[in-house]
Amino acid sequence: MSESLATTCVQGGYRPGDAEPRQVPIYQSTTWKYDTSEHMGRLFDLEESGYFYTRLQNPTNDFVAAKICELEGGSAAMLTSSGQAANFFAVFNIAGQGDHVVASSAIYGGTYNLLCHTMARMGLECTFVSPDCSDDELEAAFRPNTKAVFGETIANPALNVLDIERFANAAHAHGVPLIVDNTFPTPVNCRPFEWGADIVTHSTTKYMDGHGAGVGGCIVDSGKFDWNAHADKFPGLTTPDESYHGVVYTERFGLEGAFITKATSQLMRDFGSIQSPQNAFLLNMGLESLHVRMAQHCKNGQSVAEFLSSHPKVAWVRYCGLPDDPNYDLAQKYLPNGSCGVVSFGVKGGREAAERFMANLKLAQIATHVADARTCVLHPANATHRQMNDEELAAAGISPDLVRLSCGIEDTADLIADIDQALSFA
Ligand SMILES: *Cc1c(COP(=O)(O)O)cnc(C)c1O
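A: This is the predicted complex of the input protein with pyridoxal-5'-phosphate.
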């Protein structure tokens, strides 16, 4: 059945049968009981699907993952305990010791640390390229041991838009998949699989939850990347897994199921970074209104960005919906219905003026968070990047005057009035 994204947001994933609960049930159980140990043995051998222990899988999570899978147009999906865990699993499922990854340099700080420092300690190397690099620069980043390309549809907090098609083509020319973190636009505003991406990740902590209630993540597989065509690069998917009775994931589960089954039966088994079923339930409540909320986040983001760009106390504004933004054309291609509610701008007068502006906001609250129903604001130079001096900030692409404003779903005129009065103190 082909239905619109709005309907999938509300009803996708969980379709109750006759006399079953209308709301997704929370399976608050660590364990499942079986009548015979033979039956349980078949589950452990992956010969039959079923649940046995919530460290690996839980039905509540799977209902919600199935909704996100439908929204992205994927073949299989899994929930993780956080966005960090989702990105770690997505990369580590196909790349490890002795391997290499190409990543956009405009990505979330936590993901940068993961790829640059923590995964380096596991023997994985990463080359970072600007999302605006030339085709030659992109080409030069690849090595014979490159196993994946990674980027964010809209970078947090730099707000660059990724040219998904260009990065997907480069990845495919080298026989590797493109992994896209689609947290900021959500599938309501962009579906990276339609542009050639192979794996999509999310920090569901952001717009999908939408209410600042639960940390979580999700991985979705398009099911389209042909691991067998590049079998030498991906032995973990195409040769027997000795830790799982010699199962060959691509043979047993096909291209549609291999990636997520391996991530579940191997990585979730060994790292145990599963989302709690209670949080999955809260996430599903957020997803039910995602399409309605995203429209208001985008309306507020666009209106606030336009207001700021004509304000005498504002030095600069970054929002891809502004016609003079460097990524406006890419946004028109990939995000025709809107991008997200996050706007970055500089207050004239630098660091101190930014602080005075923020101290006088009344509706917008100071928080280390984005993509929430409530408008929130962060001054990275004074918070997340506080340990850096002005020179180090410049190297990280963050100016001392940068304010990251995440527009919520309040009334547009109220938000603008709040920003206007606070700017009079800047
Ligand atoms: C927040 C965020 C993450 C990390 O997600 P957590 O849920 O906080 O672990 C990853 N990618 C992007 C784009 C994010 O905004």
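Residues 82-84, 108, 110-111, 152, 156, 181, 183, 203, 205-206, 215, 217 surround pyridoxal-5'-phosphate (CB under 6 Å). The CA atoms of residues 353 and 426 lie 5 Å apart.
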